[in-house]
Amino acid sequence: MSKSNAAEFKEIRQRGYLLVAVKDNSPPLGFRDRQGKLRGLEIELAQKLAADLLGNPAAVKFIPVANRDRLNAVIEDKVDLAIAQVTATDSRSRLVSFSPPYYIDGAAIIAKKATAESLNDVAKKTVAVLKGSSTIPTVKYLLPQVQLLGVDSYQQAHALLESGIAAAFTADASVLSGWVREYPQYEILPTLLSAEPLAVVMPKGLQYDSLRQQVNAAIARYTTAGWLRQRAVFWGLPVVK
């Protein structure tokens, strides 16, 4: 097996580092800071796994991937793990294995501070949403009187909010957390509309049992110890109470 490809855990230890697919444009989960350094909750998680599994938080090589390549990078043995804003679903579980969730994401709503304090405050107003978003049926079900306005980009949504055409914007809470960091005059309303578990993507196959066991046990420890919750709060991510 090539040294640049995914490997069984014993081979990873011999190699000396983890290969991890991540996002580099999704703050605060995985993004590049002004110096070009990868930062975010998922980056820290990969480093902590490297520390626990290999004894060195720097023993990880990051492979930035686009959304469409997150699963394939694991399936095609290009990486050992993907920690890249992937929601664990039944259909995806047929292709890859998932760790316990490291963060519960979900649809949320953002509005300018002092304009809305709860979902009821936007229940009959115009709310922007990305066209084709999986958030749309959830919002329609929970807020049947809301007026959804489709947009092509986050920039367009921001313009509609600034102009007052839209009272709020709905998207994944993890995405909106990055929005709040960039535009602090906005805030995420406290109630999530859905619960979507983000999990580490791992390869299927008996030869990867040891790797999966190591990662699963580590995620369980981080959850029990409160480390994952602490780091989520640090990065401004909404945390389900």
TrEMBL record:
Entry's Gene Ontology cellular component terms? extracellular region; outer membrane-bounded periplasmic space
Give the range the annotation lists for the signal sequence. Answer: none
GO biological process: what's one of them?
amino acid transport
Decide whether keyword Nucleotidyltransferase is in the record.
Answer: no
The cross-references to InterPro entries, in alphabetical order and at most eight, read:
Bact_solute-bind_prot3 (IPR051455), SBP_3_CS (IPR018313), Solute-binding_3/MltF_N (IPR001638)
* Keywords, comma-separated and alphabetical: Signal, Transport
Against SUPFAM superfamilies, the record matches this protein to: Periplasmic binding protein-like II
Protein name as annotated: Transporter substrate-binding domain-containing protein
Which organism does this sequence originate in?
A: Scytonema millei VB511283
